[in-house]
C-alpha cells in the first residue's frame, strides 16, 4: 500500500497496489487465515506509517476487508483444487465476491461513515450510482489485475508451492 496507483477511469481515491500479493501467496501456502493475518499486518503498518483520514483508519479498514475477502476466497478455491484451474476459479470468484462485498460495505458503512465523520461532500442519493459506476467495477478490475500477476507468479512457483503445501500437510499429520 506504500506504492498506490489510481486507475484513470475511476475516482482518484480508488487505488491499486501490489500489497495483496504477499497475502495471497501466504494464503495459498498456509490457508485463508494466514492470508487474512498478512492483510491485517499490512493495514496496521500502513496506518502507523501513513495515518488515516482525520486520524481514523477508515481506508485501511476498507482495504483490509477487500483484501481479506479476495485472498480467503482464492485460497479456499485453490485448497479445493490445487492446480492452475483451481487458482483461476479462485481468483475470478475472489474478484467478484470482493466487488460485491465492497459495494455493500461502501453503501451501508463506509460512505455513511465518511459523510458523518469526515463530512465527505456526497448526497445520500448519489452513493448508489457511484457504487455501481465506480466502486463495483474498480474492485473487479483491481481483482483482475492482481489475479493476472498472481497467476503469472503461480506459473513460475507452482512446483515450489505444491512442495511446501505437501510438506506442511505431512508435518501436520505427524
From TrEMBL:
Protein keywords: Cell membrane, Membrane, Transmembrane, Transmembrane helix, Transport
In what way does this protein cross or attach to the membrane?
A: Multi-pass membrane protein
Show the InterPro entries listed in the entry.
Answer: ECF_trnsprt_substrate-spec (IPR024529), RibU (IPR025720)
Q: Which GO terms describe its molecular function?
A: riboflavin transmembrane transporter activity
Q: Where in the cell is it found?
A: Cell membrane
User: Which Gene Ontology CC terms are recorded?
Assistant: plasma membrane
Residue spans crossing the bilayer: 61-79, 91-115, 127-154
Family, according to the entry, reads as follows:
Belongs to the prokaryotic riboflavin transporter (P-RFT) (TC 2.A.87) family.
Identify this protein by name.
ECF transporter S component
Amino acid at each position: 500500500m506504500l506504492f498506490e496507483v489510481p486507475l484513470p477511469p475511476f475516482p482518484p481515491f480508488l487505488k491499486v497496489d501490489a500489497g495483496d500479493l504477499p497475502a495471497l501467496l501466504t494464503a495459498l501456502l498456509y490457508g485463508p487465515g494466514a492470508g487474512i493475518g498478512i492483510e491485517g499486518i499490512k493495514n496496521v503498518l500502513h496506518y502507523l506509517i501513513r495515518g488515516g483520514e482525520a486520524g481514523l483508519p477508515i481506508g485501511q479498514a476498507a482495504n483490509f476487508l477487500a483484501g481479506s475477502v479476495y485472498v480467503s476466497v482464492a485460497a479456499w478455491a485453490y485448497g479445493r483444487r490445487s492446480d492452475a484451474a483451481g487458482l483461476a476459479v479462485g481468483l475470478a470468484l475472489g474478484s467478484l465476491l470482493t466487488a460485491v462485498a465492497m459495494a455493500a460495505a461502501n453503501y451501508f458503512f463506509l460512505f455513511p461513515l465518511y459523510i458523518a465523520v469526515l463530512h465527505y461532500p456526497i448526497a445520500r442519493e448519489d452513493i448508489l450510482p457511484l457504487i455501481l459506476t465506480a466502486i463495483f467495477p474498480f474492485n473487479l478490475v483491481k481483482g483482475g489485475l492482481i489475479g493476472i500477476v498472481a497467476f503469472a507468479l503461480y506459473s513460475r512457483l507452482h512446483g515450489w508451492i505444491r512442495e511446501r503445501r505437501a510438506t506442511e500437510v505431512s508435518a501436520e499429520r505427524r
